# Entry
Amino acid sequence: MGDPGNVAIAAKLREMADLLAAQEEDGFRIAAYRRAAVTLETLDTSVAELRQEGGLDRLIELRGIGHGIAAAIAEMLDTGRWSQLERLEGALEPARLFQTLPGIGPVLAAKIHDEL
# Structure
């Protein structure tokens, strides 16, 4: 597998895609985050090194990485966090959050939320 830093950032991109899917957001955005994750996982070079070489422009040259995702990668490299993902995690209703877990549908999620 690729660089550990690349894999960690790819995991965050996938997490964003999953949260967007749970909120039934635009399929194009969801697919874009998933494509970008695959790109990072398959790189032979650290995304941090690539950014250091050529900034955001170098990241945008990568397949499936546009301006928005490049900026997100840069934020994660600089801070270790991604504010957009953190906001989205906080915005998900508890019952909908339970539904993101395998095997938990809307009825069980509502029951867990209501009873706990």
